Amino acid sequence: MSNSLKVMDDNPWYHKGLRFKCTGCGKCCGGSPGAVWLSKQDVERISKYLHLSENEFLEKYTHRIDGRLSLKEKENYDCILLVDNQCSIYSIKPRQCTTYPFWNHILASKENWEEAKNFCEGINEEAPLISFEEIQKNL
Ligand code: SF4
Fold first, then answer.
1. Which residue has a Cα nearest atom 6 of ligand 1?
2. In which domain, by residue range, is 120 found?
3. Omega before 101 within 30 of 0, i.e. cis
4. Residue pLDDT, tens place only, 49-58
5. Within a domain: residue 135?
6. pLDDT at 31
7. Is residue 78 classed exposed, middle or buried when 0-12, 13-18 and 19+ CB atoms within 10 A define those classes?
8. Is 30 exposed, middle or buried (CB count within 10 Å of its CB: 0-12, 13-18, 19+)?
9. Which of 21, 34, 40, 123 ranks highest by number of CB atoms within 10 Å?
10. What does the pLDDT look like over 15-68, one tens digit per residue?
């Protein structure tokens, strides 16, 4: 069974929910090459928040990877919008960022989820329980 099918299962391994609360540590926002894909709605929202026209925002903060629009990275691979290890647009961050760590490949197995603890301190036993229904909305 493929990963995506496992996640779409009505009774996946995380059906009782998962514990997570973002601490804002910023570790998921850099450190290794990646992409933050942007939707049209993300572009509209972020441009407005930064008081830039959409063209100005696109020019300054984005580039295309294989034809898809992504936020740029700094030389050290941190997100261009990460400032002092904090997301500078936290309250209106892109959908991809708001749904982390509830991503298909992380939820594909308990092992992947456990591994994600190594770089996301928000995944821990003290964190609030996020219900299965809430998790599914992020997929
Ligand atoms: S690594 Fe986890 S806790 Fe840290 S900012 Fe990212 S989601 Fe939040």
1. 28
2. 1-20+101-139
3. yes
4. 999 999 999 9
5. yes
6. 85
7. middle
8. middle
9. 123
10. 999 999 999 899 999 888 999 999 999 999 999 999 999 999 999 999 999 999
Helix (H) or strand (E) holding 68: strand 68-71
Residue 131, domain member (yes or no):
yes
Structure tokens at 50: 């930064």
* Alpha carbon distance 39, 136 (integer Å): 20
In sequence order, what are the residues at sequence separation of 6 or more whose Cβ sits closer than 8 angstroms to the Cβ of residue 104?
Answer: 3, 4, 7, 139
Structure tokens at 3: 């990963």
Answer yes or no: is the C-beta of 28 below 6 A from any ligand 1 atom: yes
Q: Which amino acid is at 8?
A: M
| CA nearest ligand 1 atom 7, residue | 22
